[in-house]
């Protein structure tokens, strides 16, 4: 059920948004005066914009906004797009979804409410240092660093483009207590942190928990967004009041 909600439901919503937007545009088009007839490219761009707005109303993740916007145009012009454009798109996707095949961890992002809940949790537990293992675009690092200046926030990331963008964001934010490091999470020494955060997938969780137990200091916290450690009962679960009903599973090291 969780896999359906996370992976299939967004694409079903995309389809619904596109159909609704197309129906709306087809209804509106005949009402336009003759001198306001636009070419098919503009009509589809408008249709994509409407679908993208519907997607926002349906709380689709932000990554779907450009997808919805450009999808109708991509379908219409698929035969005139030059081959090199597909190569560039492929390379860009590879640089973003670098870890999807090897680690079976795709890219999806912690939302602002969950990041704020994590910042409160870190503060409440007295943590002075936090690491986000697989830090994506750096949202968690930036949120925590901004909300809790006394906490030093580190992000660890290996997808090249994602790493570069998050580094840029952190540099632009000019937060002395935030940093992003290009390193595999498996090579990071977790004993340096009071709180270790991850939002990965079910696959690495057993191995990650073993690593955490070996390296983390007693009393420190491993917090997993959404994905549980099989056969281990968390000390507690924080339910975040966001659109996707995020759960933060908290494991205290013994
Ligand atoms: C689901 S995203 C979470 C992003 C971020 N933590 C957040 O919550 O917004 C998982 C991230 O982990 C990264 N990742 C996967 N395996 C990794 C590894 N071995 N070392 C470092 N990063 C990794 C992926 O590239 C991806 O950006």
UniProtKB/TrEMBL annotation:
Spans traversing the lipid bilayer: 12-32, 38-58, 70-98
Entry-linked InterPro entries: FAM173A/B, SAM-dependent_MTases_sf
Signal peptide start and end residues: none
Keywords, in A-Z order: Membrane, Methyltransferase, S-adenosyl-L-methionine, Transferase, Transmembrane, Transmembrane helix
GO process terms (BP): methylation
Domain of life: Bacteria
Statement: the UniProt record of this protein carries the keyword Zinc: no
GO MF annotation: an example: protein-lysine N-methyltransferase activity
CDD domains, A to Z: AdoMet_MTases (cd02440)
This protein's name: Trans-aconitate methyltransferase
Species of the source: Xaviernesmea oryzae
